Prior knowledge:
Blueprint: H1 2-7, H2 13-23, H3 25-41, H4 43-46, E1 48-49, H5 68-85, H6 91-105, E2 109-115, E3 118-119, E4 136-137, E5 147-154, E6 163-171, H7 178-194, E7 203-210, H8 215-227, H9 245-249, E8 269-278, E9 289-293, H10 304-316, E10 321-323, H11 334-353, H12 363-382, H13 390-393, E11 399-405, H14 413-435, E12 448-452, E13 455-458, H15 459-470, H16 472-494, H17 498-501, H18 505-512, H19 515-539, H20 547-569, H21 585-607, H22 609-625, H23 629-632, H24 637-654, H25 656-668, H26 677-687, H27 691-711
Helix pairs in contact: 2-16, 3-15, 3-16, 5-6, 5-7, 7-14, 10-14, 11-12, 12-22, 15-22, 16-21, 19-20, 19-21, 19-27, 20-26, 21-22, 21-27, 22-24, 22-27
Amino acid sequence: xxxxxxxxxxxxxxxxxxxxxxxxxxxxxxxxxxxxxxxxxxxxxxxxxxxxxxxxxxxxxxxxxxxxxxxxxxxxxxxxxxxxxxxxxxxxxxxxxxxxxxxxxxxxxxxxxxxxxxxxxxxxxxxxxxxxxxxxxxxxxxxxxxxxxxxxxxxxxxxxxxxxxxxxxxxxxxxxxxxxxxxxxxxxxxxxxxxxxxxxxxxxxxxxxxxxxxxxxxxxxxxxxxxxxxxxxxxxxxxxxxxxxxxxxxxxxxxxxxxxxxxxxxxxxxxxxxxxxxxxxxxxxxxxxxxxxxxxxxxxxxxxxxxxxxxxxxxxxxxxxxxxxxxxxxxxxxxxxxxxxxxxxxxxxxxxxxxxxxxxxxxxxxxxxxxxxxxxxxxxxxxxxxxxxxxxxxxxxxxxxxxxxxxxxxxxxxxxxxxxxxxxxxxxxxxxxxxxxxxxxxxxxxxxxxxxxxxxxxxxxxxxxxxxxxxxxxxxxxxxxxxxxxxxxxxxxxxxxxxxxxxxxxxxxxxxxxxxxxxxxxxxxxxxxxxxxxxxxxxxxxxxxxxxxxxxxxxxxxxxxxxxxxxxxxxxxxxxxxxxxxxxxxxxxxxxxxxxxxxxxxxxxxxxxxxxxxxxxxxxxxxxxxxxxxxxxxxxxxxxxxxxxxxxxxxxxxxxxxxxxxxxxxxxxxxxxxxxxxxxxxxxxxxxxxxxxxxxxxxxxxxxxxxxxxxxxxx
Length: 715
């Protein structure tokens, strides 16, 4: 008796919990998925107000020094630029020379930086070499194919030259607009002021980026040379190669430009970077507007303190209206309005029960926060920078793009001077705050979503929704595999076939290793996904191919490759040799597929959490609902119709081209849909080396194919 009691040892609590969850996997999956989606919808309610984590920043602690005299100098530069722009033949060279001369006159070290325009082409071996694919330098290396940046450096009187703050003003030197000229004038007024102050502890670099070949391209080219040793100046850009270069230097004719060098100069390690752009949106507002863009490649974000000081100074010191991007189509969503009103009602009831319960926000704020949150998640998941600041983040430099829009027309000189003064004092305040830092930004958050310029959701909050969504995957995978083995064992015992009731070693071995067939199917499909991801490299080599023909070629080659893999490695529809009614191969296949999806989502959450979050919203319901249609139709009519409709709907939404088209139609309307949109979208992903492209090809698309395989499985 004692021996029997000792032999019945209870399993550990963690094991008993696992067994309980596996036995109730359906209920657990429904609860977790519902809770995950609900947690995602509650993120705007759980958002916190932003705050300055680093005390040394001290934004607004000093009075601004920028005066109307500096703004007058800025207007003088603007007028000279506009006058130079009238001569289109020399504008591409005259404007960089003019900006460099103004930099030199202010007392800064100035040099020219030449870069070549480069073509963006997909190349798998260079995918993670940088966020901006260097591509291939154009064959035409004449002077007309060169971009020229003008760079000025102010050496800090109280610094040791080990740190620097970067100011960037992109402009099109070939055809400059008034707003771009104002951007240059705005930064020049501040740059000339900084040459006279005695409180600078960090060097100041002003990069007037020639963006005729793209804003990001000019900044990225300068950063590459800044962090890579360069042993020559402007190289081929001399009088022997290009006569127009004489207009750049003008060393003999203009004595003021003799201090301008063609040798690349450097300052210290970059502490922060601000990309400053003046735009004329002509919105009907009572205040000047400041738009902040922070998303960089693969969902990277700058330290939140940098955004916080800009937002604080803009709102509380200069009276600007601060904006961040939002998904405007959600602002008119009816279901979102209803959900927001429910949350507002619950918050009112909670405050009546206990005034200390601060739950719920007004419905209008909830809708605004959800639209902003959706935009923040989308641009982080896209993995493409939203401005030239993305080039700095690739070198772990905190940077943002500031677009300042006046409330009046830029042609009004009086109002324009007031606008430049207010904007210049804002940038001066940001520079003073960063100048106070004794170390790099590190106190605040790097992983966050914005729900408003002054509200954010930290990683400790938004990861709860992702964890709840993926939690059912290992439980369901274990339940499917366990049920398939139990079903197969009971069928073997009850079968009249002596071959199935035999307990010899080959039969047991075949039953124990039958999951290898499912693993082979999953391997085939994921191998196909890797091949599909590499096909664009071959398609790009085709001459004179349009996006539509490239898309059709990609689809046909993908289908052909899948058929070839099935033929070489064996068709996954070949079942294990058991009687057809007893075949439970689809359950084991689904179990292995779910395990692969869990691994893919887990790895993607490390690289780009926003991509993993959106992918989990699409993939998890699709993977959990996947069920052979032949088995579904054997049930009741209502149940069969419901499950079939859900599977088909989730399969349609989970297909990447369909998901993109639905998103674009929601944002821009159905009239804007084009068959080549998906190819153009994917082309932008690989051009920027976005990890989302690898996720689509190696994780999402194979899981979608496997779900379709399970739906059509011949039970």
